[in-house]
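Hey, sorry to bother you again with one of my protein questions. A protein chain has come my way and I'm curious about its shape. I'm sending you its amino acid sequence along with the backbone structure tokens. I owe you a coffee for this, so here goes:
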Amino acid sequence: MGGETEWKLMREQADLHFQRGNLEQAELFAREAVNEAQASFGMNHGASALSLAKLAFILRLRNKNDEALPVARRAVEVNIRLGGPDHPGTAMALQSEAEILFALRKIGEAETLHRRALAVFQKHYGERSVQTATSLHNVGTMLLAQDKFAEAEPLLRRALAVKRQVLKPGHRSIAHTLNNLILVVEARGNKAEAEKFRREARAFASPAPAK
């Protein structure tokens, strides 16, 4: 047994252990999936890109960010070779690398990658899309983490507006942006609006009234 069959088996095992919460075993199988993909298909193949992305994600969840970063960067490189720098797959890989950089407190570098991803998603999906809204939120969050409140505010407001348009009412992602926007407007002295957003955010955590 080898090739695609072996690679799929390794991926399935990694996913199974991940779903069970056994991240140590998930990591082992994810590493095997990377090795099998590269041996069977070569580095410049979609299987290799998927396997690298999965391994980087599991390593990040295990707080092995120093190990995750080079894996995530390899995933970006493969996606660029496959689809080019402006492909949505590349943007997703950039987001993953940015999340690891953020965990390593390399916030400026993470912001740069999130901005690159935002440009790709805006080009492919337009302003009114989940991908663009998520990227707006991500860039705004990076600016917030650097205390750049005046720059963060318009991005988070745009993210909130788009999420309200494209997501169902009560979606948790809307609450995430609301919570970050609360921090920004409060830091800028707008206490009344911060409280308004805070009341709205609380509603996401409250159970729906019985009918």
User: Anything to note?
Assistant: The two ends are 57 Å apart (CA to CA). The chain has a mean pLDDT of 93. The domain at 1-117 is CATH 1.25.40.10 (Serine Threonine Protein Phosphatase 5, Tetratricopeptide repeat). DSSP finds ten helices and no strands in the chain.
